Amino acid sequence: MKQFLIFTVKTLVLLLLLLVVLDFLYTTVYLQSSNRGKIDYVYNSKARNYDVVILGSSRANNHFVAPLFEQKGLKTFNYGMSGGHLFEASLLLKLMTERHYKIKNVVLEADLNLANEQESESVASKFLPYIHRSKVIEAHFAQQPHFWANYYIPFYRYIVFGPQIGFREMYNMVMQKPTKLLDHLGYYPLGKNPNANMKNDLTNLKPLHNRYYEEIKHLCKTNHINLIAVMTPMCSNTKGLNYFEKVKAIYPEIHNYENAVEGDQYFSSCGHMNDVGARKFTTIILNDFFK
Prior knowledge:
two-stranded parallel sheet; Rossmann fold; alpha/beta; 14 helices
């Protein structure tokens, strides 16, 4: 019995040491990469200067054509993240300010993402490799479920979020394999989808006094950044479009462009414009705010 206990303790100690070593190796790799996605592109960067930074979900990523801003002489990057929520947008802006970015304007897509304050696990997990290296990231995750395990158990986060930050992603970083996420200054164009579902129902969606939208407003005010919050277009065959009126009632400063681009020919799906629609919409935004 005594020998069994000794063997068990030794095995657990060796396992713990292995996890610590693996955690260190994976984290070291992530600290060397800046070409796989928008999070490592910001985290492993030094101060950058921008006239316009674009934040939000896929409805920012697919709707704001950053090269059109550049054609107007505005240094711009689209940091919208498909699948992301305002939880991640706020954290990304915090990282930018932590790295002393100089930003004149933030264009924030604030519409459907106002309806929740949850993290998007598929996007938020990509911040976790840096959780021990950044007080900003640590504090942002501190109130989230499983924070204790992600923070204190070595290698736990790399196992739980394997598809996002596990071996395959770590290997691709070692091989310096780029993605398309940083192409076109962060803008991700969509094509026309002939089989797209051009119907949507927002009837049960309710906007919140959103904590992370408030954080973004506070960050912009503190850092003297002009915040331009906008609601972006939906296809015309959408039920519950009064959702956008509800947003306006809570946050009258958010500009409503829900019907700025109309016609299914401009949409790849009901909630996402194709490249032609995005260019039409971006031109409207440029004319309205950046003449």
